[in-house]
Amino acid sequence: MNLMQSLHSLSPVPANQGELIARARSPFWLAPMAGITDVCFRQLMDEMQAGVLISELVSAKGLFYNSEKTRKMMRIHKSPGTIVGIQLFGESPEDIVQAVSVVEETGADFVDINMGCPVKKVVKKGCGAALMRDPAYVETFLTTIKKGIRLPLTVKMRTGWNENELTIHDCVQAAYNSGCEWVAIHGRTRAQGYEGKADWNLIAEVKSRAKLPIIGNGDIRNADQAKQRLHETGADAVMIGRGALRNPWIFKECAGVDAQRSGIRLLNRYLSGLRENYDTRSTLILLRKFSSWLAFGYPGAAKFRKNMFECYSATEVMQQAENFFGQVAHLPSPCFEDNEAFMMGGHG
């Protein structure tokens, strides 16, 4: 049996496939980012009106060992304003199915499978982007998961392993055949990591051929760009990652809502969530990072970031932040330029 015959050999697509995306608040979604899209950041982006929220990637194996740290990564805030998914990676579909029984307890609306992570420690186990090297197995992998869980299933992938292995079309077909609700595509290969440019022309091509919703992702740095990508590719939604770190108000701007930018107000809201969910040390670390992201592009930002890491309490961070953002309040918001390097690493 050849590849395409294999991709069409399994059970028919469920009649309700496609219902989940109709529950999204808007087509401008928060991209899952490892070490970033925890419960506090997701709650903040919910308040900023992100269309869909997805956790950082969670190890299925970590849940087997009842890791408290792993379970914390899946926390969902109270009364979210849109659908929330938990992203998993695992070495076998059986591992994922077992992990989903824990995911269900969080109140998540769907499970997202990570097929995009380029990090060596993930791909060497055959997880993340490594799965894309065998589209026939992808269908078996996803179908086994789909049959073993009750929650809707989605997947996030790259365009392929490298420029000579652009398996995205076959992998999207596999996801459709297995009953996935949508496929989110980061427009880079695994070999690219976060270098070069996301291939939105390829995303548009995939969308033109796909039988399920396609979500585009990669290099969206402002609201105008988000709306342009959505329109030009015909994608069903777009995901915004690093652009939301520099400009957390981007989702409101995409929706045409008055963002009322205030770095201090946002930091106070974020700090409140951190204190509800983390100990003093973790709160300090996360607050420092978020404060530094907000300062990027402003005059004096480098010195501010240096000062951040000399603060030893959340109170000190907020004092430094109030001084800094007070001084730049009269300035226009900095642009996140296409050629500007920022957070050139991560998972997805």
Could you describe the 3D structure shown?
This protein is of the alpha/beta class and 348 residues long. It has two domains: 3-11 and 18-254, Alpha-Beta Barrel (TIM Barrel); 263-328, no CATH class. Helix content is 43%, strand content 10%. The protein has helices at residues 3-7, 39-47, 60-64, 68-72, 93-103, 120-123, 135-148, 168-178, 200-209, 223-233, 242-246, 250-254, 263-277, 280-295, 301-308, 314-328; strands at 28-30, 53-54, 58-59, 84-89, 110-115, 153-157, 183-186, 214-217, 237-240. Strands 1, 2, 3, 4, 5, 6, 7, 8 and 9 form a nine-stranded parallel β-sheet that branches. Helix 10 (223-233) links the parallel strand 8 and strand 9 (237-240). Helix 2 packs antiparallel against helix 13, helix 7 (135-148) runs parallel beside helix 8 (168-178) and helix 13 runs antiparallel to helix 16 (314-328). The two termini are 32 Å apart. 51% of the residues are buried. Mean pLDDT is 91; it is low at 1-15.
